[in-house]
UniProtKB/TrEMBL annotation:
Organism field: Rhizobium ruizarguesonis
Superkingdom of source: Bacteria
Keyword Lipid metabolism: yes
Family matches, as InterPro entries: ClpP/crotonase-like_dom_sf, Enoyl-CoA_hydra/iso
Protein name: Enoyl-CoA hydratase/isomerase family protein
PANTHER family, A to Z: (7AS)-7A-METHYL-1,5-DIOXO-2,3,5,6,7,7A-HEXAHYDRO-1H-INDENE-CARBOXYL-COA HYDROLASE (PTHR11941:SF169), ENOYL-COA HYDRATASE-RELATED (PTHR11941)
Keywords associated with the record: Lipid metabolism, Lyase
KW Iron-sulfur (keyword) present: no
Length: 262
């Protein structure tokens, strides 16, 4: 039974982590994640939203089921998850993840691949690996450090300290928080906003941010003009610019524009 299911609802892609008794995440986690992400690539979605049927995000209900398989299995398991994380980061559309409960270990690492992370105020994010003699192997250390800096990453990784919802937003780990019971409402509103936004521009802006994160300002400068080339010749670019110019000339706020194409 797969751990993930991909569904398309109009222009919204849903990446659902299953949590029923028959499909607890386990050794099939990497392969089902990879298959679901590939389905997302092949679709015409304009935003991808990761949710969990159980409210929690973890690679296994019983970590011993993975740990008992030995180091070689664990290394391949983590490498497969990291490959899917990189695919998610390279999607040409914005991505959102939401979590109501606990994001543990590899589950937390997966959340860090998404552009937007919406957390319930009581949600708990933790990388426990070091506290039990291991290390996070699916990219979580470096992605957490990219968001919070070296000092805080050292604290959260080496001490395996939990990070709760409100604090996660304050630290820049999560982008949005929601009162308990309102997570779906808040995340769905964000997803709808992105699904009706300028998908092409979102993709180019994501590329700029990713390039800056890996290569700094100079690297982003090199590609910024190339990315912007011809954008005003697209339907979205031309219509968006015309509406913005008209609003500015009337000394009015630029309205939220709904885009139908890419």
């Amino acid at each position: 039974m797969s751990s993930f299911r991909f569904e398309q609802h109009g222009t919204v892609g849903k990446l659902i982590l299953l949590g029923d008794a028959e499909s607890e995440p386990g050794s099939e986690f990497p392969s089902s994640l990879r298959a679901a992400v590939r389905q997302a690539y092949a679709s015409d979605i304009r935003v991808l939203h990761l949710t969990s049927a159980s409210g929690n995000v973890a690679v296994a209900d019983d970590l011993g089921a993975i740990g008992d398989k030995g180091s070689k299995f664990l290394e391949a398991f983590a490498a497969d998850i990291l490959a899917s994380i990189r695919l998610i980061e390279e999607l040409p559309v914005p991505t959102v993840a939401s979590v109501a409960g606990m994001a543990l270990g590899g589950g937390f690492e997966l959340l860090l691949a998404f552009d937007f992370l919406v957390v319930a105020e009581s949600a708990m994010l933790v990388l426990p690996e070091v506290s039990v003699g291991g290390i996070p192997m699916a990219g979580g250390v470096q992605r957490l450090a990219d968001r919070v800096g070296k000092t805080l990453a050292t604290r959260f990784v080496l001490l395996s300290e939990p990070i709760f919802g409100k604090v996660a937003v304050d630290l820049g780990i999560a982008t949005h928080s929601a009162p308990d019971g309102k997570l779906e409402e808040v995340s769905d509103e964000l997803v709808r906003h992105l699904a009706t936004g300028p998908t092409l521009a979102y993709g180019k802006a994501r590329t700029l941010i990713r390039t800056w994160a890996t290569g700094g300002v100079a690297a982003a400068d090199i590609i910024s003009t190339q990315l912007g080339a011809g954008i005003l010749d697209t339907k979205d670019g031309a219509e968006g610019m015309a509406i913005a110019v008209a609003a500015v000339r009337k000394h009015e706020p630029i309205p939220k524009i709904q885009f139908a194409g890419k």
